[in-house]
C-alpha cells in the first residue's frame, strides 16, 4: 500500500477521484425508466429481426451500429422482450455505460501518447466533469458509441499523420470512419471535414508544420483521403437506398441553404459543453491574446487540427441548411476537450512554475461538476413541478423523477380496485407513457377537452398545472396522488 501511495501523486489521486465521480454520475441514472425515444428504439429496431435493424430506416431513431450491439447484448443476457427491458432498464443501460467508460480510458492513453501526460491529465479532468456527457452517458441511443468512435477515428488519423501510413492503420481508420457513419449518419460532416483536410494537405503539404512540426507525404495523405472518400460514399449509398424504401423524413431533407442559424450553433454547443465552467473561456482568451501578441500564424499548436474538426461540421451544416438537433453534435465532444486542453496547456502548462496549479484546476472542475449536478437536480424537479419543457443538451430528457413505471403500476392498481377508467394527458410531444401502459396491460383513453365528468375516474398527466387549472375551471373535485416533482402524476377525480 505504501508503494502505491508513493507511485500516485496528488494529481493522479485527484484524477482517480474525478473518474469515480464521473462513474457515480452515470450510475445515478442507470436505473432510469426509458423515455419515448428509447422505448421506440427498443420496439422498432432492437427487439426485431436483425434484418429489420439493418434495413428499416423509417425513423432517425435507428442508430444502426448501436442497435446491433443492443441486440447482441440482449441475447447474451436473455432479455427477450420489451417488458423485460422495461422492468430492468439498468441491464441495457450497461451498454452505453461501458462505451462511456471506455471513452475516458481511450482518451487518456491516446492523449498521453500524442500530447503528453500533463495534457492527458487535464483532458480527462475536462471530459469527466462535463455534465452533458453524464446526461447522455447511459441513454439507450447511439451517442456514447458515436463519441467513442469519433475519438478513435481522431487518434488513428493523428497517428497516420505523425508516422508513415501503413495499410493496416489506413484500413483501421477507414473502418472506424464507416462504423461512425453507421452509428450516426450526421457524422458525415466529420468525415467530410477529414476529406477537406486531406485535400488541403495534398495541395499544400507545408501547412502540416502548423500542427505536426513536419511535412506530410502527399502520397500517404492521398491514400488516406481516397479510402475515406470511398467508405463514406459506400455508407451514403447504403443510407440513400434505405431512404428510398421509407416514407419521406423531413429531418433528412435540406432546408434553407446557407442557414446562419446553423452556423451560430457552434457557439451554443461550445457553451453547453462548457456548462458552468466559465473559467474555461478565460484560458481561450489567454490563448488568443498570446497568439495575436506574438503573431504566431505559422507556429505549431495542438489546437489547429481539433479546431478545424470542431468548426468545419458547423460550416457544412450552414451550407446544407439541415434541421439542427443539438444532440447530434455530441460526436464533436472529443474535439472540444482537446481544444480546451490545448488552451490550458498554452496558458499554464507551458511554464513549469504554473504546473503546481494543475491540482487546483482539477479540483475546480470537480467542484463545477458537483454544482452542475445540483443545478440539474433542482432544475429537473422544478421543471417537473411546473410542467416546463426540458431543453436539449441542458437539463434534458426526463432525467430526474421520470417515473413511467411507477405511475403505470399505481394506475393499474387503482383502476382495478375502484373499477374506474384511466385517461391520459401527455403533453410536450410523446414521452413514452403509452408504451408502458400498453406493455403492462393497463387500459386507457386519451384525455380530451370535451370530456364530461359524470363519474369518478383517474387521470395520468405530465402537465400538472394545465390539468389542475382545467379541472378547477370546471369545479371538478380532484386529489393529486404523487409528489409534484415527479414527471408523471395521477389525479383521482371525485364526482
UniProtKB/TrEMBL annotation:
This is Glycosyltransferase RgtA/B/C/D-like domain-containing protein. The chain crosses the membrane at residues 12-30, 90-111, 118-137, 143-161, 170-188, 194-212, 221-239, 278-297, 303-325, 332-352, 358-377. The lineage of its organism: Bacteria, Pseudomonadati, Bacteroidota, Chitinophagia, Chitinophagales. Keywords: Membrane, Transmembrane, Transmembrane helix. It comes from the Bacteria.
Amino acid at each position: 500500500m505504501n508503494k502505491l501511495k508513493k507511485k500516485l501523486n496528488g494529481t493522479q489521486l485527484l484524477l482517480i477521484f474525478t473518474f469515480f465521480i464521473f462513474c457515480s454520475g452515470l450510475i445515478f441514472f442507470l436505473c432510469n425508466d426509458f423515455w419515448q425515444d428509447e422505448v421506440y428504439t427498443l420496439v422498432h429496431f432492437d427487439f426485431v429481426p436483425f434484418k429489420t435493424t439493418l434495413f428499416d430506416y423509417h425513423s432517425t431513431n435507428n442508430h444502426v451500429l448501436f442497435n446491433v450491439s443492443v441486440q447482441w447484448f440482449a441475447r447474451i443476457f436473455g432479455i427477450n422482450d420489451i417488458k423485460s427491458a422495461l422492468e430492468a432498464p439498468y441491464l441495457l443501460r450497461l451498454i452505453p455505460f461501458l462505451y462511456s467508460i471506455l471513452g475516458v480510458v481511450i482518451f487518456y492513453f491516446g492523449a498521453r501518447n500524442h500530447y503528453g501526460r500533463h495534457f492527458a491529465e487535464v483532458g480527462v479532468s475536462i471530459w469527466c466533469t462535463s455534465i452533458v456527457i453524464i446526461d447522455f452517458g447511459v441513454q439507450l441511443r447511439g451517442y456514447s458509441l458515436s463519441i467513442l468512435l469519433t475519438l478513435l477515428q481522431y487518434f488513428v488519423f493523428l497517428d497516420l499523420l505523425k508516422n508513415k501510413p501503413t495499410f493496416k492503420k489506413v484500413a483501421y481508420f477507414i473502418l472506424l470512419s464507416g462504423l461512425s457513419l453507421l452509428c450516426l449518419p450526421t457524422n458525415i460532416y466529420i468525415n467530410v471535414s477529414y476529406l477537406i483536410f486531406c485535400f488541403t494537405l495534398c495541395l499544400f503539404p507545408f501547412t502540416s508544420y502548423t500542427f505536426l512540426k513536419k511535412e506530410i507525404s502527399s502520397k500517404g495523405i492521398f491514400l488516406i483521403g481516397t479510402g475515406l472518400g470511398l467508405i463514406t460514399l459506400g455508407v451514403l449509398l447504403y443510407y440513400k437506398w434505405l431512404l428510398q424504401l421509407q416514407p419521406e423524413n423531413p429531418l433528412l431533407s435540406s432546408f434553407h441553404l446557407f442557414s446562419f442559424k446553423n452556423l451560430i450553433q457552434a457557439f451554443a454547443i461550445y457553451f453547453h459543453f462548457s456548462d458552468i465552467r466559465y473559467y474555461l473561456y478565460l484560458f481561450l482568451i489567454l490563448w488568443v491574446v498570446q497568439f495575436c501578441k506574438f503573431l504566431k500564424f505559422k507556429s505549431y499548436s495542438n489546437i489547429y487540427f481539433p479546431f478545424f474538426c470542431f468548426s468545419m461540421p458547423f460550416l457544412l451544416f450552414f451550407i446544407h441548411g439541415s434541421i439542427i438537433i443539438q444532440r447530434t453534435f455530441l460526436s464533436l465532444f472529443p474535439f472540444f476537450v482537446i481544444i480546451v486542453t490545448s488552451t490550458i496547456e498554452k496558458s499554464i502548462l507551458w511554464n513549469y512554475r504554473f504546473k503546481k496549479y494543475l491540482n487546483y484546476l482539477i479540483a475546480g472542475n470537480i467542484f463545477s461538476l458537483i454544482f452542475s449536478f445540483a443545478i440539474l437536480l433542482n432544475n429537473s424537479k422544478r421543471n417537473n413541478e411546473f410542467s416546463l419543457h426540458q431543453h436539449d443538451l441542458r437539463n434534458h430528457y426526463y432525467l430526474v423523477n421520470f417515473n413511467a413505471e411507477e405511475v403505470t403500476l399505481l394506475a393499474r392498481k387503482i383502476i382495478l380496485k375502484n373499477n374506474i377508467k384511466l385517461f391520459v394527458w401527455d403533453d410536450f410531444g410523446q414521452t413514452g407513457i403509452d408504451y408502458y401502459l400498453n406493455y403492462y396491460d393497463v387500459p386507457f383513453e386519451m384525455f380530451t377537452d370535451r370530456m364530461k365528468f359524470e363519474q369518478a375516474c383517474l387521470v395520468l398527466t405530465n402537465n400538472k398545472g394545465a390539468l389542475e387549472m382545467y379541472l378547477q375551471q370546471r369545479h371538478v373535485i380532484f386529489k393529486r396522488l404523487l409528489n409534484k416533482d415527479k414527471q408523471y402524476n395521477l389525479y383521482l377525480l371525485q364526482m
